[in-house]
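Q: For a teaching session next week I want to show students how multiple molecules come together into a single three-dimensional assembly. I've collected the sequence lines for a complex. Could you give me the predicted structure tokens for the whole thing so I can convert them for display?
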Amino acid sequence: MIRFEHVTKRYPDGTVAVDDLSLAVPRGGITVLVGPSGCGKTTTLRMVNRMVEPTEGRITIDDDDITARPAAELRRSIGYVIQHAGLFPHRTVLANVMTVPRLLGWDRPRARTAAMEAIEKVGLTADQARRYPAQLSGGQQQRVGVARALASGPDLVLMDEPFSAVDPLVRADLQQEVRRLQRDLGITVVLVTHDIDEALTLGDSVAVMRQGGHLAQFATPADLLAEPADDFVASFVGKDRGYRALGFADVRVTPRAERSVQVGEQVRAGSGWVLVTDGSGMPLGWVDGTGWGGPVREDRLHRLGAVASPDDSARALLDAALSSPSGRGVVVADGRVVGTVTTQDVLGGLDRRHSVGSVGKDAEHTVGSVGVVEESGRVEGDAP
Amino acid sequence: MNQTVLMTWEWLTDPANWQGRGGILAQSLEHLRLSFVALLVAALIAVPTGLWVGHTGRLRWAAVNLTGAVRAIPSLGVLFVAVLLLLPRLRGELAFELPALIVLVALAVPPILSGTYAGVDATDPAARDAARGVGMTGGQVLRQVEIPGALPLIMSGLRSAMLQIIGTATIAAIVGLGGLGRFLIDGQASRQYDQMAGGAIAVAALALLVDQALALLQRVVVSPGLSSAARVR
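A: Of course. Below is the structure for the complete assembly, covering every listed component.
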């Protein structure tokens, strides 16, 4: 537990970056500090490893006051990832990652082994480990930054806008990577971002901060979307928060059975959109059998659209249905098609949620011809 | 014109001029000795100062302005003033060598100081922040991040200082010291223009040679990660 107790940071010129902040960041999981620029989120993060010293108040990590030991020693025990990676340009990737183990006094072989493990964990190769930072792309550099933070095996990692300098595709990759690393290693991550989408995607809990260093709300992403504490939070999470909340709505829809063919098999004209799979049941695409019939060839295939898995969120299931040329979203489990869902299936499931409310806990409902199994673990938040 | 070139060539290629106590080789060595002593003293003054200014950010204005001002001081004038001041106080060679050293050191400090300061100052702020953030102490940040990163600029400061030192060390001959300047001063006194031109060429050649040696040293001490070649993917 990282506990802020009435923490204030006031600069000599009178600016208050953080104002009487009290916050308990739980162990395990990712806690995101989010807010507009100037809200004190970075200052808050940097106070944890004493890169910034608070003017008032106390910060404890697992009940130990962080000022109890020298700042440099404290920092060596906490992973630190920053926006532009901040790699040391004159050191190879390996040497960069070996930095903290070496600072901790580990001998070279042990530091090297730990560094190589960290480098592999973030998805880089031994070949890349020998290179210099300037020889890597921005995304790869940021991976090295993460590896450097993890090499000595800290149980707490601070990340300050770690992905905002990389392009969106790479960012999504890195977010997944951090998610995975956090789970695999069981570490606690405190991450700062100005991007509410990133906060909602990554955070197990999200602290929304507002101008002047005030904490506006500290909640799970689902609660933040369902019940913003005030107008500021409501406007910060965005106009489409209802739609975004679908990303946290666990509506389990039992997919409809879907007839599929394989490449080479006959499709009768007039049979509408037909799903094509390979021999193992992996979906390949759709063929339009509305006004055409004949043996399916690869060049007849239309794109699949997004593919969802049965326990995905309502947002993912809806997206699968909306992006499918047939209007039927393909649901895949273990690489095999288990069926399809329509927008109606998903929306129907959502409607049931509201009418059932918290009573529907752990209940199974069958709606019409479509089997909709509802998981209403988070329904309480929606009930009045 | 052609005559002068030919005579100079003959002077330079005459083995007799290379050998002996006053020969080109001996004077080159003496020239180098004086130059390296000057470079060493200048570096001992300028590098720590530049590191301190760059690391702490203090007295930045002084470093910038002073180096500019020192560059404008006339070497010959300083030499004479120093000789006049030190001659009554010192005995023997030192009375002349020290003034020459003062001139050369004064000349060499600005480029080394500004190179060092600029090199440290140019450290990527993100790298510096990360260095502190992963738990380096101030000294470790300086030794492990700022100095290695500043080495290209420190080295180029040393190189340009050395070029100036070798060129200017010829004036040591004016106050009776050795070095390649002897050929210029003595040549002029005895109107032996082949010797003057030959001496000048020898100075230029020595400067280039030493610069190449320092360039080689730079390639050894500077991390490949900092060279522009590393940026090519």
